[in-house]
Amino acid sequence: MGQRLAQVIAIAFMSKLEEPVIERRPLLYCRYIDDCFIVCATQNEMDVCFDLLNNQAEHIKLTREKPTDRWLPFLNTQICLARGRFHTRWYRKPSNKNICL
């Protein structure tokens, strides 16, 4: 029961946390539970959005992924923005052990 409730709490918490970022109208904002994907017009705007998310709650600090060779991991994909278009490919974390239950 606790795990199911944790997802609901995370969704509710993040919906409140993201309000100031959505008000800034980034080019793209996507979220799955507590994983956010944000595209802004400038690096400065991205920094402002990240600071807004991190300054909402004292004990909650988000981490930021940086692109590797222009590819950014998000969930089980990697995303690249090139010439105004998104390109995607499958992504597996290096810690993936390829175990199925």
Task: Please outline what is shown here.
With about 100 residues, the chain is of the alpha+beta class. It has three helices and five strands, in the order H-H-E-E-H-E-E-E. It has two domains: about 1-65, no CATH class; about 65-100, no CATH class.
Structural notes for this entry:
With 101 residues, this protein is of the alpha+beta class. It folds into two domains: 2-64, no CATH class; 66-101, no CATH class. It is 33% helix and 25% strand. The protein is built from three helices and five strands, in the order ααββαβββ. It has helices at 2-17, 19-23, 43-54, and strands at 28-32, 35-39, 72-74, 77-82, 85-90. The chain has a three-stranded antiparallel β-sheet with strand order 3-4-5, with no helix packed on it. It has a two-stranded antiparallel sheet with strand order 1-2.
Number of strands: 5
What class, by secondary structure content? Answer: alpha+beta
Strand ordering within the main sheet: 3-4-5
Taking the sheet with the most strands, its summary is:
3 strands, antiparallel
Rg, nearest Å: 15 Å
- Indicate how many domains the architecture comprises: 2
Shape: globular
Which oligomerization state do the chains in this entry correspond to? single chain
The helix/strand order is HHEEHEEE
Uncertain parts: none
* Euclidean distance between termini CA atoms: 20 Å
Round the mean pLDDT to the nearest integer and report it. 87
Question: Which SSEs are present, and which pair or pack?
Answer:
Blueprint: H1 2-17, H2 19-23, E1 28-32, E2 35-39, H3 43-54, E3 72-74, E4 77-82, E5 85-90
Antiparallel strand pairs: 1-2, 3-4, 4-5
